[in-house]
Amino acid sequence: MDLVESLRLLAEQNISGVAFLFAYGATWLVCGVLWQRVSLLVAAYATLFQGVVALPIALGVLFLLAAVGSARPVVDAITQLSVLIGMSQVLGLPLR
User: Cα separation of 67 and 61, whole Å?
Assistant: First the structure.
């Protein structure tokens, strides 16, 4: 299986990321409203931690769509790349 086919199958399995687009879009929309309606400190904290709320929502939607739990149709290189990107973000964020 080549890389393009692997990514196509993964996008098909996850319905092109609709769960993450929905969850993160909704939380960013809430953050936008908060910036207009509440104090800057509250809005800043909400924006900072919006991912803590959005990720479980996205995973829950994926579970409801039965996309979680099935075998991932990707080659090991994609999994390794995902881990590498995630670790670089974890290590790089404190430097900012």
Answer: 9
* Per-residue pLDDT tens over the stretch 71-93: 666 667 777 877 888 787 777 66
pLDDT in tens, 14-43: 777 888 899 999 999 999 999 999 999 999
DSSP annotation string for the chain:
--HHHHHHHHHHHTGGGHHHHHHHHHHHHHHHHHHHHS-HHHHHHHHHTHHHHHHHHHHHHHHHTT-SSSPP-S-HHHHHHHHHHHHHHHHHGGG-
- Of 28, 63, 31, give the one whose Cα is nearest residue 44: 31
